Amino acid sequence: MLPSFPAARVDVDLQVTRPPMVLADAAGDAPRWAAEHREALRAVVTEHGSVLVRGLGLRDAAEVGAVVRRLTSGVMTDGEAFAPRQAYADGLYSTTTWPSSQPMCMHHELSYQLEFPGLMLFACLSAPTDGGATGLADSPTVLDALPSDLVARFERHGWLLTRSYNGEIGASVADAFGTDDRGAVERYCRANAIEFEWQPHGGLRTRQRRSAVVSHPVTGRRCWFNQVAFLNEWTLDPEVREYLVDVYGPDGLPFTTRFGNGDPIGQDVVQLLNAVYEATTAREPWQAGDLMLVDNIRTAHSREPFAGPRDVLVALAEAVRLADCSPTLEVTAR
Question: What is the C-alpha separation between 220 and 237, in angstroms, rounded?
């Protein structure tokens, strides 16, 4: 059992263009400071969707893990990864492997699963020399800024994630499912409402339909919650997309998204979504030792291109079930 500490208040610096920020005077004991300020920090996240804590001086994965244990009620494991991560102790992971020259567009972590983290924690051990911020966007604000007819279409049909595992590019079956045993993969897919089809060459193709709009399980606010833009083929670098389509065909891309009824999502829709995200993005350059808490349903996050070493650890915490978020589509396991 972790020791208990008296609750303490925090002063929050609120600016439109950056996440809410709290300056910590941790005096070399980040876990103790986190325990003392847990309730205050969680209240900031509930009210604003995120908080950046500066001054903790986090130095390594062990210290980050100790802080995470004091701020959360439990972590969850990563699953159905679309790119590899390195796993650490205490439920910590590296950020997703992605070219440093390419942005990771706004998304909600694991929003294609039936269970996903309600809270994300990011800890910066080494900040890049340029760029690399974790941008944030308020999902109710994004939802309100989108055309009503587009929102209605997504509410009616949801969104569809299609993935092709070919063993050559993108995540492997083992990366995504933790095993390459066909029976185990099929059982997982059936239990998680994922359609699957083994390909003649031994690859796997999957399809999963999810709600694009949900209600926050605590506040009840409607949130734009998905990875429609990030995992769409039109977000890929044009040369990379052209190469993948040429090699694997339009139906064999490692991943892409569609409307839930199977209709393609055009480049214009993806550009619109990314433009709305950009217009609502708050960002603050990382400093070594920083910690950021993000409500994964209320707030989308991104990773901007960067130069130089960037070591950011992430914890996926406090699992939430899609069924508890008033989804617009009923999804059941088979």
Answer: 37
| Interacting residues of 33 by C-beta distance below 8 A, sequence separation 6+ | 24, 25, 26, 27, 56
Q: How far apart are CA 307 and CA 300, in angstroms?
A: 23
Indicate left, alpha or beta for 110 from its phi (over 0: left) and psi (-120 to 50: alpha): left
Helix-strand-coil percent breakdown of the chain, rounded to 5? 30, 30, 45
Is the per-residue pLDDT at 28 higher than 70? yes
Q: Is 271 helix (H, G, I), strand (E, B) or coil?
A: helix
- pLDDT tens-digit series, residues 193-250: 999 999 988 899 999 999 999 999 999 999 999 999 999 999 988 888 899 899 888 8
Burial of 27 (0-12, 13-18, 19+ CB in 10 A): exposed
The distance from CA 224 to its chain's CA centroid, rounded to whole angstroms, is 13
Residue 206: beta bridge partners? 163, 196
- Measured CA to CA, the distance from residue 299 to residue 280 in angstroms comes to 11
Q: Is 242 exposed, middle or buried (0-12, 13-18, 19+ CB in 10 A)?
A: exposed
Residue corresponding to tokens 């308020």? 138
Return the bridge partners of 75, or none: 317
